[in-house]
Amino acid sequence: MEVFKYAGVGDRWRQVEHSHTGDRRHAGSWFVKMALASPCGVLSDEDECGAVFESTAADIGALLRSQRFVSPLPEISVITPAADSQTPTKECGQVLSSLKSDVSRRGSADDGSEKLKVFLRIRPLTEAEKERGEEQGCVNVQSEDSLLLRAPKDSRNMKSAERGVSQSLHKFTFTKIFGPQTPQQEVYDHTIREMVRDVLHGENRLLYTYGVTNSGKTYTIQGAGGEAGLLPRALVSVFLKLSGRLYSAMDLKPVLSQEVRKLDAGEVRAEEMRRDALLKEEESTGGHHSRLRAGLSWDSGISGLSATSHIATQLEDSDGISLETNGLCLSGGEDLEEGVQFSVWVSFYEIYNEFLYDLLDAPPSLQSRKRATLRLSDDKHGNPYVKDLTWIQVQSAEEAWKVLKVGQRNQSFASTHLNHNSSRRLSVCDLAGSERCKTQPNGERMKEANNINTSLLTLGRCISALRHNQNNKSRPPLVVPFRDSKLTRVLQSFFCGHGRSCMVVNINSCASTYDETLQALKFSAIATQLVHGPCSKTRVAYILSLLREEPAHPNDTTLLEEDEEESEEEGDITMFDPEALLKAIDVLKREVLRQRQEKEELEAQVREEVCTEMMEVINRMQDDFSETLESERDLMEKRCENKINNLKSSLKKYYSQELEERDDEIRELTAALKEKEDGNIAPAPVFPPLSDVNGPRRSRRLASTHKRDTDHESVELIQCKAELEQCKAELDLKQTELRLKTLELKRFQENLPLTGITGNLTTTAERKLEEGQRNLKQLRMELQTLGIKLQSGERACCRNTDGEKLRHALSSADSKLAKQDQMLVELHTSLHLVKAELRKKDEMLAQYQRTQPPQPPMAPGSCKKRGCGVAVAYVENQPPEKRAFFRSLFPSRTPSKTPSRQRAEVTTPYTRVLRTRQPSPPSTPIQLRVKY
Ligand SMILES: Nc1ncnc2c1ncn2[C@@H]1O[C@H](COP(=O)(O)OP(=O)(O)OP(=O)(O)O)[C@@H](O)[C@H]1O
Hints:
- One of its GO terms (molecular function) is plus-end-directed microtubule motor activity.
- The protein is an alpha/beta fold and 932 residues long.
- It contains 27 helices and 22 strands.
- A hairpin with a 3-residue loop joins β11 (252-255) and β12 (259-262).
- Mean pLDDT is 66; it is low at 3-111, 287-319, 412-423, 551-571, 684-695 and 856-932.
- Adenosine-5'-triphosphate binds next to α1 and α10.
């Protein structure tokens, strides 16, 4: 049996208060645990199956949710707006009736799991509280399991309800509600009585109280004013039940979480000394107040006497707790396992500011030595236990109570472990009241209050997480934050299938603490939704179940038959002979293999499912990605097209504007130039007025800039014009010269036969051609120079002169020159051919002259005729275009000349050529400023 007190601020505060009034009482959190041990010292089959008191309440939250009332926390305890605003009573009645039916329906699940029991106890108001006007009807019991809270007018809840943030009416449903006048015995009967029985049958049970400070938690657990609470009643009940079954030796001690160790003689002696010292201490200090009064008989466990139906045992202590044992007799020990004895050990510890203190190992002087703290450890199964905790074996309820009193005197509260061979446990936890931090007078109290609230909050979070995991089994489970506080770690095993728990919610009906009470009830409403997990089977029970499930192995038949009589809970491993155990081992091995195979298959299946799902996800992602890519591409294309179009239109606009401007400029400049030329005066150029907003921008700009250079540019323009004229004249001259030369060449060709001396003629013609070529070359160079000058002149004139026209003229002159050049080359080639022909003819002539007798000299006419014939023949031998070429070379002016004159000229062709080679007029350097 284990009892601990979760110390709170309220305890200390009330201790001070009570010391003034002389009514010193304790409040806080108690945790009682029981363990049973068999005398053989071997673990029984139930050593892993603890006994826990669990609180269970009606599932109001789930019910409200099922009726689609609101969500999260409010849905648990807050009445819906509709119910609140319209006809509260009627609505509430409907809610209640549905809640009731649901509660009764859901009290125990089909799968054997049981809902957490949550009881509510309302303490009566004191006279002082009534005088203060605390009774405002805010707590209304509507039936034995439903409660209606009405927010008093000064409460925060009412204020927020007035703002429309929350509701002012709240309805809760519990497993059972104990009103202010409910006696302790009735509370005991409905709460812990069954639990004590379960503990003695090998279960773990936990009972804990929860509520605001000064709500009656300690009163419920411990009792006061002669009314024994649940704990002393449970103690008496246990010992009544175990009468005649107590194991008097002290050599079996609880260790770790649920184990039992056999002590040697020395250790037993030490344990005895410790217990004697504690009991002596209790007797020397307050023991005279704590006495046991037995009417007929009281089975202390030592005498081995059984309790009878006439027991009238009374336990009184300094708090005036008086315990009538009449209603505590469970039913005798017949239903307990035959031949099993029980050893009861108690321990008592306190959790204070997140530290654990052993209250049965108090320092000699509380003032002189700091109390040692205890550590929480886990056993190999992961169950937490308080390491190095003091355990005291007790043989009676009186001894147990004395031990608890010693612990209480060690300032706070404690826990008592009753150890049995099988380590079944009953735990009673008296939690500290939830505190309002702002009411705490100093820093130390504030720290305590914070720690208490943190622990209770963690408890709430654990319960919430457990509820979530139970309600959402398909989803990944939430981590239950048991390790976030010492309190929840201690309680952990009771929430994890190693037992059951029961919660008693204590409230008072004071209006001043209404808001805190509401919070406590909301918290309890979460707890009501918890379902106990199936109890974990004991090792032996598990083995037995396996053996029963093995019909395929005939060898196990004997074992199965043997076990048929035994229940799982009652199975004891020592009952089997070695042969049966070996068989069991074989069965277990097969079971291990089977489970391993099952798990492997499951893993493979899970992997396959995961792979399929992943592939689906990947495919979906791929499709999505392709779609996105496609749309992105379209978008980009559209954007690019738009950009290009924009660019095009802006370029078009820009260049058209630019062209317009230039045209305007040219027009303006031309007009200005013309004006200058006409007037030969240099007035200011006529630009459009600056004020003319319709005029081109560039013109306005130019007007402003050109105004400054007007005179200078006028001079330049005149010069430029003169130079251009000169260039034109020069070009004409050159062209004339070229024409003359061409003509001379023609004449020369025509006169060739007349010379009679072909060798000299060709040589002369060749020389003349070369000379003509040189002249043309020089002419071209001069023209090029002229063009360059013209270009620079145009540039200098800022494109405002007739440079364009000049350039065109020059380029056409260039092309003409190039054509003439080409013609000369062709002429040169023709001359070479003529020369070759003439040489041939000369040779033939010479040969003919050698063979023929000498003839009289030929008349000039005949000579001319022959020469003409040669010339014609030559022309006829040329390709058709060449004939055209020659026609162009010999212009039609020649026929106008008389043959005699031609002849006269032709007779001196060389001199004519020389005459035409007049030195070309020196090309004076021209300063042109042409701007392109
Ligand atoms: N059902 C009841 N009948 C009569 N008196 C009661 C009852 N419940 C509580 N009281 C009295 O109310 C006072 C406060 O109760 P108690 O000390 O148990 O509160 P608590 O919840 O334990 O406070 P804390 O959280 O501070 O420990 C005590 O004087 C107690 O005797």
